[in-house]
UniProtKB/TrEMBL annotation:
CDD domains: HTH_ARSR. Coiled coil: none annotated. Residues 6-99 form the HTH arsR-type domain. This is ArsR/SmtB family transcription factor. Keywords: DNA-binding, Transcription, Transcription regulation. PANTHER family: TRANSCRIPTIONAL REGULATOR, ARSR FAMILY (PTHR33154), TRANSCRIPTIONAL REGULATORY PROTEIN (PTHR33154:SF12). It holds the Pfam family HTH_20.
Amino acid sequence: MRQARHPRPEEMTLIAMMGALSDPIRVGLVRVLADGRERGWGELRAPVAKSTLSHHLRVLRDAGLTRTRQEGTRCFVELRRDDLTVRFPGLLEAVLEAAHGDDVGAHVGVADDTDHA
């Protein structure tokens, strides 16, 4: 399988960022990934079909918000915090603060041990 393309920081645009952050599911994914941990796609929980979740992850990647890494048949995703901070200083923190305050994306999370019981 071919590697996903990730825009370089200088290729990231404000319009692409704002478009990617215009959906509550995607904001929720950013909130989850804001802890700095790389997550397997299978760990992510959202009230949408797997194909729709995959679409949301692709939108975030294409805008430059996330980096996707494939290992065998598994995909992992992480927030590109450093690149975002360099390209758009303060944007990520403002989005996360507003999302938390307005409870946007709170219905998105990660699998916990009870999901495997």
